[in-house]
Design brief:
The longest helix is centred in the C-terminal third of the chain and has 15 residues. By secondary structure, the chain is an alpha+beta fold. Helix content is about 30%, strand content about 30%.
Length: about 110
C-alpha cells in the first residue's frame, strides 16, 4: 500500500512491516488533548453525542509529563484503515476545536 508521507502513514507502514492483519477488526483508541484541563462539560457532551464510547482520564498519579493533566480517549471497533483514522481525527478535532481540543493520536493493540 502507498500511505501518505506523514505520521499516520508511518504508523501504517510499521504495522504492515509487522504483518498486521488489516482485514480484521480491532479496537482503535483515539486520544483527545486539550490546551487546558479539564474541558467544559459541554465539550464532553458534544463528543459523546458522536462517540458514546469515550472515557475522561484525569492524570493525577504523576506518571505523565507535568503539562498533561488529562485527556479523553474514545474507542472505535472497526478495520484499521487510513481513511477511517484520518477522518476520525479530523472530525474529532473539528468538534473539539471550539473547546481548545484536538485529536492527533491513535493506536491499536495487537494480540
Amino acid at each position: 500500500m502507498n500511505w501518505p508521507e506523514n505520521a499516520d502513514g508511518d504508523v501504517f507502514r510499521k504495522l504492515a512491516a509487522q504483518n498486521f492483519d488489516f482485514d480484521k477488526q480491532y479496537t482503535i483508541d483515539f486520544k483527545v488533548d486539550f490546551s487546558s484541563w479539564p474541558p467544559p462539560a459541554s465539550a464532553i457532551e458534544s463528543l459523546k453525542a458522536e462517540y458514546p464510547n469515550l472515557k475522561v482520564v484525569d492524570v493525577a498519579d504523576g506518571t505523565n509529563s507535568p503539562s498533561e493533566k488529562g485527556y479523553i480517549t474514545l474507542k472505535i471497533n472497526d478495520t484499521v484503515n487510513y481513511d477511517l483514522v484520518a477522518e476520525t481525527q479530523s472530525k474529532v478535532t473539528r468538534i473539539m476545536k471550539p473547546f481548545g481540543g484536538w485529536c492527533y493520536s491513535w493506536g491499536v493493540i495487537v494480540d
